[in-house]
Design brief:
By secondary structure, the chain is of the alpha/beta class.
């Protein structure tokens, strides 16, 4: 078969996870040639204004240019962090494959003496720019100071070495996929910080009419991850929310039983609505939609709208 071009952003994390994907694809398709092409996105160019772009409804700032390259056929497969991918599918494209998820939990990386969330001293300064992490952190420990920190993994880890932060919170998968798991001081339990929908998972996106490429990508699909992610994303879509909302979702599967937990928080931590549902994993999409409805009836929409206005 012809050479398959795999497109991704150029950050250390994006490249590491794309190399991981290409290794898995090569195991399945040893005769096929794969090459990696990096693409700069609006999010890479203009990190400071992420929240303002989100407000303008511009959800695809990490992925638009990559999707354009797919449609223009300059790449064949796009590798995205699933949590950055809007829940609405882009016309002409489809997610062909969701490989096995890494650990979905957030991690704490702390300075000396700041090594676990529960043990942080009163008033500790925690770096994160995620409204989800802010909301849940403040709900857990109102005394904590949550301070914005922007940038890629390297920049955010470096913040811990400065005097401005005592610790930062990151997606554990980002450290795992860049061979830095050892730098995580704590994998934060999901009963303190519920992960973002899709956190730790990747999506392989292809042109909807390219069956051959879809087959290549699907060879590394992981059925259990696929069910978990489907439930989490249907929940997010059902709330009408995106990746910048104060929303957590975490699905687990035991045998055929899928359990989905959802949280929606007030940004100041004054309130967190929590709900759980479970059922047959084959009903993953319905379970997500039902949980969203349940939480909307408990007032989740107001919390999401309040966060948008912040
Ligand atoms: N929003 C940026 C982003 N998108 C995906 C990851 C990490 C890897 C993943 O969740 O798959 C990160 C960084 C972070 O949240 O710390």
């Amino acid at each position: 078969m012809r050479t398959v071009t795999v497109g991704t952003r150029g950050s250390t994390l994006a490249l590491s996870q794309t190399r991981w994907v290409v290794e898995r694809l090569k195991e399945q398709w040893p005769e096929t040639e794969f090459r990696i092409q990096t693409i700069t996105t609006k999010g890479d160019k203009n990190r400071a204004s992420l929240q303002s772009m989100a407000k303008a409804g511009d959800k695809g700032f990490w992925i638009k240019e990559i999707q354009d390259a797919l449609l223009a056929k300059s790449i064949d497969i796009a590798v995205h962090s699933l949590k950055d991918l809007p829940t609405e599918q882009t016309e002409g494209l489809e997610i062909a494959s969701i490989p096995k998820r890494a650990d979905a939990r957030d991690v704490l990386v702390g300075a000396e003496g700041f090594k676990s969330l529960a043990a942080l001293p009163e008033g500790a300064r925690i770096g994160t720019s995620s409204v989800r992490r802010r909301a849940f952190l403040k709900a857990f420990r109102p005394d904590l100071q949550v301070i914005p920190v922007r940038g890629n993994i390297e920049t955010r880890m470096a913040a811990v070495a400065t005097d401005d932060y005592d610790a930062v919170i990151l997606a554990g998968a980002g450290l795992i996929r860049t061979d830095q798991r050892h730098r995580a001081d704590e994998f934060v339990p999901t009963d303190i910080l519920l992960p973002a929908p899709g956190q730790g998972a990747l999506a392989l996106e292809v042109r909807a009419d390219d069956d051959l490429i879809a087959e290549v990508a699907y060879a590394i699909n992981d059925a259990v991850t696929d069910d978990r992610i489907t439930a989490e994303r249907e929940f997010l879509a059902g709330l009408g929310a995106g990746c910048l909302a104060p929303v957590g979702a975490f699905a687990t599967v035991k045998g055929d039983l899928l359990t989905l937990e959802g949280w929606v928080g007030a940004v100041d931590g004054s309130e967190v609505i929590k709900a759980t549902t479970s059922g047959d994993a084959s009903e993953c999409a319905d379970l997500g939609a039902e949980l969203a409805e349940d939480m909307l009836s408990q007032g989740a929409l107001q919390l999401i709208e309040n966060a948008r206005e912040e």
